[in-house]
UniProtKB/TrEMBL annotation:
Subcellular location: Cell membrane
Domain Cadherin: 54-130, 131-239, 240-347, 351-454, 455-563, 569-673
Protein name as annotated: Protocadherin-19
Membrane topology: Single-pass type I membrane protein
GO CC annotation, single: plasma membrane
Transmembrane segments: 677-701
Organism from which the protein derives: Notothenia coriiceps (black rockcod)
Region spans: Disordered: 789-812, 906-963, 1000-1021
Signal peptide: 1-24
Classification via InterPro entries: Cadherin-like_dom, Cadherin-like_sf, Cadherin_CS, Cadherin_N, Protocadherin/Cadherin-CA
C-alpha cells in the first residue's frame, strides 16, 4: 500500500475517536513476517487492551471492528484474537514500499477506541530477475575505450535492502560494468568498452551478467550477454549536452513542447542522418507521459502530468546515425513537473453514514457528531486548506492539523427544529483559490423532555342538574410536542374527594380526554365542584401535568315551594285575631321555602280562593292583613287559600288553607314580629325616657312634700299672639300650621282663688320650690310685640299629622296649636310682670286693690288692643287647660277602631261617644301627647302616627266626674280659642257655667253649621 493510504487509515481512526465522543483511545502495534500461513495468531487484542486500561464488555462480543484496511489478510475474532486469513505476500500487498502496515480500528461497548497497527516485515524471498533470458548487443569495432552501452536492468519485488543492490559481469579484459543509481533508488548497469576491438580478430563475445540483492545470504539473478563486433562508422552523433533539465507545468496539455534535442554527426548521407529514440530501460510511465520525435528529437507531452503523482521524470535519449556500424550517442533529460493550483480541496466525512448524522436533542455542548478530513493534492500554498461551517446553526467546526471535527455548539430542541442541513466549505490558499463544499444532514433525535401541556390550565363547564349519568360533560386536551411514545398522552382523574366522596363517583375520563358524569347532579346539594385531570405521556421516564376542571351545576326548577309558616296540619292552618281588629291588622305571615335559586326560588304570595274581600297579602313577605273592620255581626271565621308560587319555567307552587277565627277575648294588638335593631333602640330610648320621667315625678313629689306653702299656678295663654285661621263655609284653611312659642306661656303663681275670663274658679296649688327649680328652663324677655313678631308658621304637613290635617280640611273644624312645645316647662314668677309692677300684684290690679284686696279680675291675662283685620270678628277665648296622659278609648262597636287620631273625623253614622271625662288636676303640663312619646296607630292602615305638635289632649271639666269621658280636643283648637280670647276684654262673667256649656257644645258641635257650633261662637264672641 502507498503511504497516503496509510495516513487515511490513521485519520479514519482519529475520526472514530471524535465521532463517538470517546474520552479514551489506545494504540496496539504488532509485527509479523510475510508468508505466514492462514490462521496464524498475530496477537490477543482483548488481553493487550485490558493491560492498558481499556474497558471491555463482560460478555462477547468484546470488541467491534469499525474499520479494516486489509480485511482479506487479517481478521479479529469476537473474543479479540487477531489472526491472518490468508498467506500474506508483502511484495504483493505493499510492493516496494519501505513500510507495509495493516490498520484496524475497534470499539468497545463503552465507546472507547482501540487503534491496531500490524506491520508486515519483508523477507528476502525473491531473487533479482532480468526481463529476458539473454541480452544481444552490437558494438562497432572502432568503438573507443570508455564507450558505454546501457543494459536492461534486473528487478526484485523485495523492498529495501532486499532489492537489487549490484551487477557483475564475467571477468574479461575488453568489457566492464558501471553501476548507477537512479532517482527512485533503483540500480542500473552500463556496459563499458575497456579496450579497442578488432572484428577481424574476434567478432562475437559472450558473458554472464549477474544481479545481486542485499539479503543474507544474497540472492542472484543472471542473464546471458551476447556481444557482436561489427564494422564501424567513423563518426558518431554527438549531443550538445549530456544532461538536460527542464520544467513542465502539471496542467500542460498534450503535445506541449518539453525540449528540443539536437545531436550532430559530421558524416554524410545515411552515416550523418541521426535518429532519436528512448533508451530501452525508459519505463512505461515515462513513455505514457512523454513522446519523442525520432527525426527532430523534440520531446512533447503525451499524457496527463500530475505533480501529486510524479514530480520528476528522468528520460534517457540516444541518437544514432543511419550508417553501418553506427555508434549511438546518449543524453539524459530530467523533467521537473511544476505544481499548479489545479486541484480543489477534497472534503471527506468520516462517519458511518456520510449523508446523515443523528444526534440526540439532549446532546451537550462540545459533543462530536462527525469527523471531517480535508485534503488538497496541490503542494505549498496551493495545498493549504481552510475549512468552515456555513450558516447560523448550533454547531461549530473545530480544526486540527490534519482533520476537523463538527461539535454541538448550542441547545438542540427537536420540537423547534428536527433537521439541520450543514454545509462544509473548504478553500485552499492558491491564486486563485479553489473551493469545495460538502453537505451533511443532521437529524435531531427525540427525547422525552416535554411534559404534556393543557390547552387551558382551567376548564369550566356549566351542567344542568338532573343530568343523565354517563353523559359527556366536556373534553380536555393536552399537547405533547415529543414524538412517538414520548408524545402519546393519556388522561386520568387525580384522586380526591368531593363532598367526602371519591371523585371517581362523580366523574370519569377516557384516554382521549372526554369527561363523563357518573351520577345525576343536584344543584341544591352540590352547586360547584372542582377536580384535577392528569395528562401523562408514555416516555421513559414519563412526564405529566394537570389542569383544574370546575363543574358548575345549574339550577333547574325542580323543587316545589314548601309552606313553613303558619304550621299546617293536612294543608290547613288556623289563626285567631281579635274581633275588633282594625283595617291593616296583620293576621299572619305566610312563609314558604324553595330550595331552588334565583327566579326558580323567588316566591310570590297570592290569595287564590276564599274570603279575599276581607284580606290582602303582601306578595313579597307574605303578610296577610285585614282590609276591613269586622263588626258584631261578622261571621265567626273566614277562610282563604294562600298560594306561594315561584318564578321558574314552568312555575311550581304550594298552597295553604288558612282559617281565620274572630275572638272577642283577644286585644287588637299586632303580632309581634321579629325583633330588629331599630326596635331594640326605640325600646332603650323609651326606657331611658320612662326612667327620667319617673325621676322627675319623684323629685316633684318630694319637693311638694317638703314645701309647706302651697301655691297655685294658672297656665294661661297670656302671651299667645297667634291668630287662628278658622274657616267657615267655603272659606279654605291655610295649609301652614302655627307653632306656639315657649315664651307665649307663663305660669302665674296664685295664693288665692282665681277667676278666669269665664269666671271659672280653680284652686291651683303647686310647690314653689319645684317651680323655681324649673324656672331656669324658660328664657323669656320678649315684649308683647316680640311675641307677636316671633310667631312662626309651620312649613306644612308633617308625617305625624298628615291624616288629621287632611281630614280637618274636609270637616271644617280647625283649632291650630303648638301647645306641645311648652310641655314640661315652667316660667319664673316674674316673667309675666310689668316692669313697674309689684311682684305680688296681677296685671289688672289698681290702687284700690292694694287697699281693699285683689279680685279675680286682677289675675286675668292681659289682652292687647283689638286689631282690625278681616278676621277680627272671630271670637277667641282663653282657657286654662292641662294636658293629661292620652287614654285610648275602646268602643264596643268592633267595626270601627277609634283613637285620638280619629278625633273630628267621624261621620254622621258614628255611634254615640262617651261623655268627656276628666278632672281638673294640679298638673302643669299643657297639651301633652301620649306619655313617654307613645304613638297611636291610625285605624285603617295600621300605621303609627306620632306628632309632637298635633297630638290630641283631653279637656277636663271641674264639674264632670272623673270617670266621664271627654271628647278629644286638639291643641291647635285650644290655641285658636286662646288666641281669640286674648282679643277680648274680660267681662267679669262667672266661668263655671261657661265652662260647662262650652264642654257640652264641644261635645255636640262637631258640625260647623249646627246650632251647637253657632252657640259656641256666640259665647266666644
Amino acid at each position: 500500500m502507498q503511504t497516503k493510504e496509510m495516513e487515511l487509515i490513521q485519520l479514519i481512526a482519529l475520526w472514530l475517536l471524535f465521532w463517538v465522543g470517546a474520552e479514551a483511545v489506545i494504540n496496539l502495534k504488532y509485527g509479523i513476517n510475510e508468508e505466514m500461513k492462514p490462521g496464524s495468531v498475530i496477537g490477543n487484542v482483548t488481553k493487550d487492551a485490558l493491560k492498558q486500561g481499556f474497558q471491555i464488555a463482560l460478555q462477547p462480543p468484546y470488541l467491534r471492528v469499525i474499520s479494516n484496511s486489509e480485511p482479506r489478510w487479517v481478521e479479529l475474532s469476537p473474543a479479540g484474537i487477531l489472526t491472518t486469513q490468508m498467506k500474506i505476500d508483502r511484495d504483493v500487498v505493499c510492493r516496494q514500499n519501505p513500510k507495509c502496515i495493516i490498520s484496524l480500528e475497534v470499539m468497545s461497548n463503552s465507546m472507547e477506541i482501540c487503534v491496531i497497527k500490524v506491520e508486515i516485515e519483508d523477507l528476502n524471498d525473491n531473487a533479482p530477475r532480468f526481463p529476458t533470458s539473454h541480452i544481444d548487443i552490437e558494438i562497432s569495432e572502432n568503438a573507443s575505450p570508455g564507450t558505454r552501452f546501457p543494459l536492461e536492468g534486473a528487478s526484485d519485488p523485495d523492498s529495501g535492502i532486499f532489492g537489487v543492490q549490484s551487477y557483475s559481469i564475467t571477468p574479461n579484459e575488453l568489457f566492464g560494468l558501471e553501476i548507477k543509481t537512479r532517482g527512485d533508488g533503483s540500480k542500473i548497469a552500463e556496459l563499458v568498452v575497456q579496450k579497442s576491438l578488432d572484428r577481424e580478430t574476434q567478432s562475437h563475445y559472450s558473458y554472464e551478467i549477474s544481479a545481486e540483492d542485499g539479503g543474507d545470504p544474497p540472492k542472484i539473478g543472471a542473464v546471458q550477454l551476447n556481444i557482436k563486433v561489427i564494422d564501424s562508422n567513423d563518426n558518431n552523433p554527438v549531443f550538445d549536452e549530456s544532461v538536460y533539465t527542464v520544467n513542465v507545468m502539471e496542467n500542460s496539455p498534450i503535445n506541449t513542447l518539453v525540449i528540443d534535442l539536437n545531436a550532430t554527426d559530421p558524416d554524410e548521407g545515411p552515416n550523418g542522418e541521426v535518429v532519436y529514440t528512448f533508451n530501452s530501460y525508459v519505463t512505461e510511465k515515462t513513455r505514457d507521459a512523454f513522446k519523442i520525435d525520432s527525426r527532430t528529437g523534440i520531446i512533447t507531452v503525451n499524457g496527463i502530468l500530475d505533480y501529486e503523482t510524479s514530480q520528476i521524470f528522468e528520460i534517457d535519449i540516444q541518437a544514432k546515425d543511419l550508417g553501418p556500424n553506427s555508434i549511438p550517442a546518449h543524453c539524459k533529460v530530467t523533467v521537473n513537473v511544476m505544481d499548479t493550483n489545479d486541484n480543489p480541496p477534497i472534503i471527506s466525512l468520516l462517519s458511518l453514514n456520510t449523508e446523515m448524522v443523528e444526534v440526540s436533542e439532549n446532546a451537550q455542548r462540545g459533543y462530536v457528531i462527525a469527523l471531517v478530513r480535508v485534503s488538497d493534492k496541490d503542494s505549498g500554498a496551493n495545498g493549504k486548506v481552510q475549512c468552515r461551517l456555513q450558516g447560523n446553526v448550533p454547531f461549530r467546526l473545530q480544526e486540527y492539523e490534519s482533520f476537523s471535527t463538527i461539535l454541538v455548539d448550542g441547545r438542540l430542541d427537536r420540537e423547534q427544529k428536527d433537521t439541520y442541513n450543514l454545509t462544509i466549505q473548504a478553500e485552499d490558499s492558491g491564486s486563485p483559490p479553489l473551493r469545495a463544499t460538502k453537505s451533511l444532514v443532521v437529524k435531531v433525535s427525540d427525547e422525552n423532555d416535554n411534559p404534556p401541556h393543557f390547552i387551558k390550565p382551567h376548564y369550566q363547564e356549566m351542567v344542568m342538574e338532573n343530568n343523565l349519568p354517563g353523559s359527556c360533560l366536556l373534553a380536555v386536551s393536552a399537547e405533547d410536542p415529543d414524538l412517538g411514545m414520548n408524545g402519546t398522552v393519556s388522561y386520568s382523574i387525580v384522586p380526591g374527594e368531593i363532598k367526602h366522596m371519591d371523585v371517581n363517583t362523580y366523574v370519569s375520563i377516557n384516554p382521549s380526554g372526554r369527561i363523563y358524569s357518573m351520577r345525576s347532579f343536584d344543584h341544591e346539594y352540590t352547586r360547584t365542584f372542582d377536580f384535577k385531570v392528569l395528562a401523562r405521556d408514555n416516555g421513559n421516564p414519563s412526564l405529566s401535568s394537570n389542569a383544574t376542571v370546575r363543574i358548575v351545576v345549574l339550577d333547574v326548577n325542580d323543587n316545589t315551594p314548601v309552606m313553613t309558616n303558619p304550621p299546617l296540619v293536612n294543608g290547613t292552618a288556623e289563626v285567631s285575631i281579635p274581633r275588633n281588629a282594625g283595617v291593616g291588622y296583620m293576621v299572619t305571615q305566610v312563609k314558604a321555602d324553595d330550595y331552588d335559586e334565583g327566579e326558580n326560588g323567588r316566591l310570590t304570595y297570592t290569595i287564590s280562593e276564599g274570603d279575599r274581600a276581607f284580606f290582602e297579602i303582601d306578595q313579597v313577605n307574605g303578610e296577610v292583613r285585614s282590609t276591613r273592620m269586622f263588626g258584631e255581626n261578622a261571621k265567626p271565621n273566614y277562610e282563604i287559600t294562600v298560594v306561594a308560587r315561584d318564578h321558574g319555567k314552568p312555575s311550581l307552587s304550594a298552597s295553604a288553607y288558612i282559617v281565620v277565627y274572630l275572638s272577642p277575648d283577644l286585644n287588637a294588638q299586632e303580632p309581634i314580629g321579629p325583633v330588629n335593631l331599630s326596635l331594640i333602640f326605640i325600646i332603650a330610648l323609651g326606657s331611658i325616657a320612662a326612667i327620667l320621667f319617673v325621676t322627675m315625678i319623684f323629685v316633684a313629689v318630694k319637693c311638694k312634700r317638703d314645701n309647706k306653702e302651697i301655691r297655685t299656678y294658672n297656665c294661661s295663654f297670656f302671651y299667645l299672639r297667634r291668630v287662628a285661621e278658622y274657616s267657615y263655609g267655603n272659606q279654605k284653611k291655610s295649609s301652614k300650621k302655627k307653632k306656639l312659642n315657649k315664651n307665649d306661656i307663663r305660669l302665674v303663681p296664685r295664693d288665692v282663688e282665681e277667676t278666669d275670663k269665664m269666671n271659672v274658679t280653680e284652686n291651683y296649688s303647686i310647690d314653689s320650690s319645684y317651680v323655681n327649680s324649673r324656672a331656669h328652663l324658660i328664657k323669656s324677655t320678649s315684649t308683647f310685640k316680640d311675641l307677636e313678631g316671633n310667631s312662626l308658621k309651620d312649613s306644612g304637613h308633617e308625617e305625624s299629622d298628615q291624616t288629621d290635617s287632611e281630614h280637618d280640611v274636609q270637616r271644617g273644624h280647625y283649632v291650630d296649636t303648638a301647645v306641645n312645645d311648652v310641655l314640661n316647662m315652667t316660667v319664673p314668677p316674674n316673667v309675666c310682670q310689668l316692669p313697674d309692677q309689684d311682684p305680688s300684684e296681677g296685671f289688672h290690679c289698681q290702687d284700690e286693690c292694694r287697699i281693699l284686696g285683689h279680685s279675680d279680675r286682677c289675675w286675668m291675662p292681659r289682652v292687647p288692643a283689638r286689631v282690625k283685620s278681616p278676621e277680627h270678628g272671630r271670637n277667641v277665648i282663653a282657657l286654662s287647660i292641662e294636658a293629661t296622659t292620652v287614654d285610648v278609648p275602646h268602643y264596643e262597636d268592633g267595626t270601627i277602631k277609634r283613637t285620638f287620631a280619629t278625633f273630628g273625623k267621624d261621620g254622621p253614622e258614628d255611634v254615640e261617644r262617651g261623655e268627656l271625662k276628666g278632672k281638673r288636676t294640679q298638673e302643669s303640663q299643657v297639651c301633652s301627647p301620649k306619655a313617654n312619646g307613645g304613638a297611636v296607630r291610625e285605624a285603617g292602615n295600621g300605621r303609627e302616627a306620632s306628632s309632637p305638635i298635633t297630638s290630641p289632649v283631653h279637656l277636663k271639666s271641674p264639674l264632670s266626674k272623673p270617670s266621664s269621658a271627654y271628647n278629644t280636643l286638639k291643641c291647635r283648637d285650644a290655641e285658636r280659642i286662646a288666641n281669640h280670647s286674648l282679643l277680648r276684654q274680660p267681662e267679669g262673667k262667672d266661668s263655671e257655667p261657661a265652662v260647662r256649656e262650652i264642654n257640652t257644645l264641644l261635645h255636640d258641635g262637631r258640625d260647623k253649621e249646627s246650632p251647637s257650633s253657632k252657640r259656641l261662637k256666640d259665647i266666644v264672641l
